[in-house]
Amino acid sequence: MIETGERLLLVGEDREYFVTAGEGQFSTDRGTIDLSALPGMNPGDEVRTHLGVPFIVLRPRPTDFFVHAKRSGAPMLPKDIGLVIAYTGMNRDDTVLDAGTGSGVAAIYFGNIARHVKTCEVRPEFAALAEKNIRNARLENVRLILFQRVLPAGVAAVDAPVAAAVPAPARWLLYHHAALSAAVGAAEPPAMGAGLGGIPFFIAWNHSILR
User: Fold this and answer.
1) Of 31, 111, 144, 171, which residue has the fewest beta carbons closer than 10 angstroms?
2) How far apart are CA 108 and CA 63, in angstroms?
């Protein structure tokens, strides 16, 4: 059942709108939609504008967030996210470390597949927007971690194979050895052969971290 405050996709014959269930009216060129009528409905139900034009009520999928969610910059493209998922074999038993949250689009895709996602960002304004997008996606298995762009002592202690697996501009994330170890969790089962301090994990990165 749809709840107040939930983000929804309204799909018509040749229109679709990204709205929030709750109070107010949403004006379109096909008429006005009463948003207060949405709570209590179920995905797949139909809502009509005051002109009688029908729209199907749907919960948004990751592709809808790519199209409609607010962005802090150019997000990782779905085709590239698909390559990460395909080549890593990401599945529901995995813990994913997403280095460079950006708008949170990749984390939303990963969160619909993996058991846990830990996504890291250095820009507070990016993190705030991503956190809202992730919350709108109703993903309780995605945790956003805000890092400071400061390299602590002990850089040489980073596992060389792991550092080599990440583009040089993003390697600073690996230097937060203790923080990342705690974020991923020593009790997590292996997701890949490479590991940070003996803790296996995926690394998915996007170009927001390269700026």
Assistant:
1) 31
2) 9
- Cα distance between residue 195 and residue 159, in whole Å: 8
Alpha carbon distance, N-terminus to C-terminus of the chain: 41
Residue 184, helix vs strand vs coil? helix
Cα–Cα distances in angstroms (integers) from residue 53 to residues 25, 35, 39, in the given order: 15, 15, 19
Q: Which amino acid is at 172?
A: W
Q: Which pLDDT tens digit goes with each residue over 148-184?
A: 655 444 444 344 444 444 444 444 444 343 444 444 4
Helix (H/G/I), strand (E/B), else coil: 90: coil
Q: How far is CA 201 from CA 87, 94, 96, 97, 192, in A?
A: 14, 8, 6, 6, 6
Residue 149, pLDDT score: 55
Give percent above pLDDT 70 in the chain.
70
Higher pLDDT, 202 or 45: 45
* Residue labelled with tokens 């990460």: 84
- CA–CA dist 10, 47 (Å, integer): 8
The set of long-range contacts for 10-17, using a CB threshold of 8 Å and a minimum separation of 24, is: 10/47, 10/55, 10/56, 10/57, 10/58, 11/55, 11/56, 11/58, 12/53, 12/54, 12/55, 12/56, 15/55, 17/55
Ordered by where they begin, the domains of the chain are: 7-59 (3.10.330.20), 65-210 (3.40.50)
